[in-house]
Queue: 2 jobs
Job 1
Amino acid sequence: MNIKKDIAISDSGFVFDPTTGESFSLNPLGVKILTLLKDGDDQKEISDFVLQQYEVDSDTFENNYYDFLNMLKQFNLTEPQA
Amino acid sequence: MTNIMKKQKYERPIINRINAGVSNKFGTQTKINIISEIDGLAVKDLLKDYDSPLYVISEREIRETYNKAKQAFSTRYPKVQFAWSYKTNYLDAVCRLYHKLGSWAEVVSGFEYDKAIDNGVPGSNIIFNGPDKSEEDLTKAIKNGSLIHVDHFDELYLIMKLADKIEETPKLAIRVNMDTGIYPQWDRFGFNYENGEAWNALNRIMLNEKVDLVGLHTHIGTYIMTPNAYGVAAYKLAELAVRVDKKYGHKVKYIDMGGGFASKNTLKGAYLPGTDTCPSFDDYAEAITNALINSEIDPDNLPTLFLETGRALIDDAGYLLGTVLANKRLADGRRSTIIDIGINMLFTSFWYEHNIVPAQETTHHTEDTTIYGPLCMNIDVIRAAIQFPLLNKKDHVVISRIGAYNMTQWLQFITLRPNVVIIDMDKNVHIIRENETKKNFDQLEKVPEYLK
Ligand SMILES: Cc1ncc(COP(=O)(O)O)c(C=O)c1O
């Protein structure tokens, strides 16, 4: 999944989408993952990173990860699929 | 040497849309409250020891609230007597605690009456209210010298008939309904004040030598937010007392103002939380005692003021503890959290926006959330829209202020009722009602031979 190139992500947890004018707030892990996605990391790379850094098992994270991707789609922060 | 890095605490990734300047139905929340312990005992330990879900009653909070209520009235009026309204919570341990604190019993059925007797309440300290008193119930109540609050003329005539046969003189009060300026007016119980029915009933009682008029009663409704309505009600009962005294030279021993004080719960659709809007015991006490003291009642013969306060005394002392079963995403992106507490255990969720909070530390991040119970029923909604922190499966939640009506109006529906415990003043935990088992229900059912 590709994240829109022109969204602005701030370290403090805010995201601005200039194409719609909408703003979003994220928690720290949300910011981290969105940044990794924007940089082109795939699911495996993101998952490895999170499992290494955080107290979480892979099933729980996978579940939460897909939920998060769905929300990004819901908020139109992803590029329409070709 | 290997560098073992300590992993960070995990919180799942979330994103929320910011709606600048627009407040939505999920409300805004800046600070996340948690309840991790009750009277010094950890919620997680209580759930480990007594299973989830779990009802918890705090003796400390029962005592503190009772003392506050008592103080509000007894500092303003010389003779005050509380009567515990059994229907609010009739677990025997709870009733006995109120009796220990000095409360009499207020009951509305033969079942509740027998419970009060079994709880050691002298018959003369039981107030018997309600429209459903059988001939057998009335006979028992007359013989025990209980205070019978007559609801309608059919009942009055039955009592007069019984009085012919029974040696003891029935002690009667009438329940009066009236316009106190609040809507809806509860006019289905008792005799109406404005149309003269109440006065008529009083005359009939006074003209019958076999019955004794001892009191006047009203219960103007429940969760009444306007203390002034009580002032109006107390004034009208005082007026009836004065008229009886003038015409018959007979003084009633008490005026019973019923229950109905609001607890600090928030009603559905209310703009502000109940903690901000609900009157204090002092507000109610001021309105009622002013009306009585300023009435024409002879100050040397003030009647005792009875109060049948239910929810305002016990709501705060009750907690419902539970566990997150799952998180789900609804079609429109809203999060839903499913917990093991259903509306079958939280009857009051039909009219309250119950306060529900996590039992463990969370971050300040929240999501628009709907909290569902575990029942396979669309109506099983604990909170339709709340800003809620990110809880995971197996995390614990606490619903506070549930002491009134839930442990009597609960339903055996789909799941079985869980344990109820009380935490005593020394922080000891006692089971006061065991969790139900399938066996309990099997005992009551019978399968006809042909279906075996
Ligand atoms: C006659 C009577 N007294 C007292 C109560 C207790 O009311 P509350 O819990 O509102 O104080 C009720 C409740 O309906 C009642 O019907």
Note: Chain B has a mean pLDDT of 94.
Job 2
Amino acid sequence: MWRIRLHGRGGQGIKTASQILGSAGFYSGFQAQDFPLYGAERRGAPVMAFTRISEKVILERGPIISPDIILIGDETLLNDSQSAPLCGADPTTLIFVNSPHPPEKLAQKFSLVTADLTDLCHKHLNKRTIYSSALSAVGARLLGTIELADLLQAVEDELTQQGIVTQALQGNLELVREIYTKIEPAILTPKVEKTLITKPMVLPDYRPVVDGAPIILEPGNMALRKTGNWRVERPEIDYTHCNDCLICYARCPDGVIAVNPEGRPAIDYDHCKGCLICAQECPGHFINTVRETGLFP
Amino acid sequence: MKVLTGAYRKIKDLHPHEAIAPGTGLCAGCGGLEGLRMALKELGDDYIICNAAGCFTLLSVYPFTPLKGSWLYTTMGGPTPAAQGVRDALDIRMRHRGLEEKENLNVIVVAGDGSSNDIGFGATSAAIHRGLDFIYFCYDNEAYGNTGFQLSAASPYASATQTTPSTDVHEAGTEINKKDLFEIWKAQKPVYLATVSPREPIDLSNKFAKASHLKGPRMFICMSPCPTGWGFEPKEAQLIAKLAVDTGIFPVKEYYEGEVVHTVRPRKRLPVEKFLERQKRFRHLFKPHRQDVVIKHIQQRVDEYWGQYE
Ligand SMILES: Cc1ncc(C[n+]2csc(CCOP(=O)(O)OP(=O)(O)O)c2C)c(N)n1
Ligand code: SF4
Ligand code: SF4
Ligand code: SF4
Ligand SMILES: [Mg+2]
């Protein structure tokens, strides 16, 4: 059995990628299982999805702890200790990172494959960065046992179910074809299968109600949580032209543009989620957008 | 046309104070969050928010809160009864138990359109009837957003939701009209009632500033462009909000002392397509073929609305 774990952000099509990969595996004659895992957070927050592909019946359930392949759709996640995309990787794990430049330190430790999917998505998907097709194509190709025709069928079926229009579907299919020729099948070492053991059920004990009605004593402590790593693109104010009209400040939904004592706007990058409303709304277009590339530290 | 005379005239007048700390789990580009952010700037830090289960429940997730004030999480139908309970408790304690006036709190409900129009509707009507002294903030993203965008009574005609997609049998998607919550609430004559848009921060701020000096039920409906549910790029949230106003689809108005006043008026209304065509939830109106009858129907309803006032 091959276990593939996918990482990305809400809105990037990570869940769909795991579904396409599962369907493609199924069409190629394998047993398949796929499902996502995400918290209550919304678009932009880290998400995970899983695909298991096997010649035999799949009895294993739950998140994949020891993956054979890790597909990272968003390289900025490498810096994110909460999402920890490398968790459970060992020397037999193959890691794919969507990146224009192979992260060197990562390459020293793991077998690593990279490709600039963002660029390819821009090219085929009318500038949109939805990795559902691209990431599933990478996974299918690395596995080496999934036929192109089955992959294309899976892309078509899954995206049609989501109501994609014909033109966009064609773009996705071309994207998949290009990736299929670009990526080479990998040599994978199967992991030693563990026998499943049953554990006794844990029964919770009762607690007084006050334990379940917690109080937060520090107002505004949400700022301790950094949402800066949600960004795919970074807004940068061009201060030589900015005339301090403060429209950007007024329009930032997360309130992360502060006004400094001189009346100038300043972006708090620890928290800016990269919605780019500020860049869109600046009357003089004095906010530039730069793609974030989170290098492996 | 009566012009609202408020304290704010330009962006630079707005409070620099941020009432909501960053770091929340709400989507990047959430229009409703922008509305609430502006609203809370006007309401000071001494408040308790009674929140109905929905997207905004993510604002305060133990052990973190972005707020300076208190937060009481309630069931989807329960924020207004909770507000009544809190208001009563504060009043009784101030009257009989020596709670000082400076300890008093503004009681605010923050609820989605699903809660406000559906399960929480009756209890809120009862509270307006009793004249409960509270502020109600309904962020209207026009569906059950938190659970994946299913139909609510606020979902507009011809929008596609998870439970009312466009199909061969139901080409238009949602086939019923959005509930007119403003008119329904107005019929109960609350002290103050207004619609607000995150695109009009000055108008919004003036309305909350005004309401903060009144006593009794003060009701707000905030149009809340939702990139995730409506299907547009987060950066376009403000543009979508602007088009909703400019096409006349979303009237920005207030009801006060028996009179309805449109506080922001589109000078020359744009065709409704301009608003519809940018969102995935209306895409079936344009592709694979144009549903002219449906689009015309939407336009007609907007024209009829403004016809009453022009
Ligand atoms: C009685 C009840 N039914 C269903 C739910 C599940 N639920 C939680 S949030 C939500 C959506 C609420 O929609 P809305 O009030 O519009 O807020 P939004 O999620 O759009 O912010 C639903 C259906 C619930 N909490 N309670
Ligand atoms: S991109 Fe701009 S508007 Fe969006 S969160 Fe960052 S600073 Fe705010
Ligand atoms: S909107 Fe543009 S010009 Fe105005 S303050 Fe922001 S960056 Fe400067
Ligand atoms: S789903 Fe919509 S309303 Fe809910 S947090 Fe996201 S953008 Fe805001
Ligand atoms: Mg809603």
Note: Residues 1-5 of chain B have pLDDT under 50 and may be disordered.
